[in-house]
Amino acid sequence: MNLDHRLLSFVKVVQEQSFSRAAAALHITQPAVTQHIQSLEAEFDASLLERGKRSVNTTKAGEIVFHEALRILEHYNEMKRLVDEVLGGDTGSIVVSASYTFGEYILPYVLRQFQQSYPKISFVVNIVNSDEVVRQVRNHEADIGIIETDLAGSENLTVVPFARDEVIVIAASNNNFYAGTAPLAEELATQTWLLREEGSGTRRVAEKALKDLAISPTHILELGSIQIIKQSVEAGLGISVLSNWTVRKELSLNTLKQVNPQGFSLGRSFSYIHLTAEWQTKTIKLFAGCLTGMAGRF
Question: Residue 36 has what pLDDT?
Answer without folding.
Answer: 92
